[in-house]
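Blinded run. Sample ID left blank on purpose so nobody reads anything into the name before looking at the predicted structure. Input follows.
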Amino acid sequence: MHVAIDDTYGPEAITPTKYVTGARRTYVAVEFPDAQVAYIRQNIRDCVTWLEAKLGTSLLEFHFSEIYNRRGAWKSCLNGENLRVVSFFAELYQLHRWRVHIQTVDERTFSDHNVDPAGIADGIDLCERDGQALFLLLLKVRDVLPPPPERIVMRIDAGRSKPGSLLAPRIFRRWAGLYDGRYEFSHADPLIQVADFLAFSINRSTHLATKPTITKIDQEFLDMVGNMGIRSSDIIRVGSTIASIRQDLDMAHSEDRIAKGLENPE
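Blinded prediction complete.
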């Protein structure tokens, strides 16, 4: 089993709803069967090479906040090439529907339980929100991965540590020598780019749902993500309209918190 992890956050300057603020940090993990890994990596590398020639610019990888917002190498995409790349990854996900795990931490996550995490756990700083989200995600992933003798290869985008650094060996000590978890540049492993796509899609959908008004392109993006059918027990699917999306988002959060005993019904 291969697992790729990437993070997503912000923007902090959003119009908050009752439950969604810009202070959240999210990590996303995607599971890939070993038999598909070489095929996925090669196809994404081939796509990068083809688009590099088409755009006439240097392109190392797919980074979806840059693609969607036409930054960097994507600045000159005036004919919708950037959105076609997003659509291609959505179709790729629909074809395989890999299992996805999501962990978000915000100002309520630990205060709900009267917990104030501190210290370093398995090399991860629990005093800051980014580290808290990563640590909780790793615990969640650990509890659902196939047990030994399944080999686990885990790669996370090297934003927090140098490429090649070990990732949480104590959390996954059950697998002992069957566990290979490391930080890596996302351009070096296209699986991380798939995780980046899913993290971006999830975070962008949340952000758009908080906006007082959204554009036609935003609405098309929300429809595309909804149609992907992301396979995750961490996602609650809610029917809504553009006119009521903010209220429906808060209602879904409220019902979830009541069901978990974190709030009392009004």
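Unblinding after everyone has recorded impressions. The radius of gyration is 19 Å.
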